[in-house]
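Is this the right way to post structure tokens for a design question? Let me know if I should format differently. Anyway, here goes:
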């Protein structure tokens, strides 16, 4: 881990300490969790996570069409025209 320094208001520190006490974790852990949440909500997903999601989705849906692998470009173009 990399040590960093952040300046917080007295209210923020008080609230973080109270929350850390309730959750029985350190203030540092709360801050790391908050940073992770912010990064995830920013819409940026790393390549490993994209790959994992793509593999997880493969084969999970059924269109009813038997020619998807041969005509996937046509189906995709049609979906974007609608």
């Amino acid at each position: 881990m990399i040590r960093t320094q952040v300046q917080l208001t007295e209210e923020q520190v008080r609230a973080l300490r109270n929350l850390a006490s309730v959750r029985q974790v350190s203030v540092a852990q709360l801050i790391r969790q908050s940073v992770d949440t912010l990064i995830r909500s920013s819409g940026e997903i790393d390549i490993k996570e994209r790959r994992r999601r793509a593999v997880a989705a493969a084969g999970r849906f059924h269109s009813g069409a038997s020619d998807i692998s041969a005509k996937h470009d046509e189906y995709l173009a049609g979906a974007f025209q609608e």
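Format looks fine. Someone answered above. Worth noting: The chain has a mean pLDDT of 88. The two ends are 49 Å apart (CA to CA).
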